[in-house]
Write a structure and sequence with these properties.
The chain contains six helices and no strands. The chain has about 150 residues and is mostly helical.
Length: about 150
Amino acid sequence: MIAETVCSAVSAAGLGIAAVTAYRKRFLSAARIAAYSLVPVGLVMTGVVGWLVDTAFSPTAWAGFGVLGVAWLLSMTTRAVERRGGGTRKERKAAARAAQREAVAPAASAPSLSQGSRPAARPATTPRATGSGDDFSDIEAILKKHGI
């Protein structure tokens, strides 16, 4: 009862402000204010205000909102964990198998130190690639063509 009265008073005040705005020759603003001021009366007439008042003072409804909040929180937490790479056990096993298949030599990932602790010596000179001279000759030809 009180909520309906408050909504009616708000609508009446809004329509009064719209009338003053229309008197000042601001018809577009007056129409917008009138539209917003009719919303509370429409909500009262449809019964939404009564339903909201009954819900606001119901402990069962508040407990239901709490349960919905906990469900939402759990859902968002599990999504965040999955995005960080945790995932489920099944997803982690599948990713490990896929990574092992992609590896060239999975058994050779750890160095063998049985023949001594020093790594193998590198050759003193490294052979050049056979195509490196061709690359520079193309560049030289382009530069000569442009007179550089």
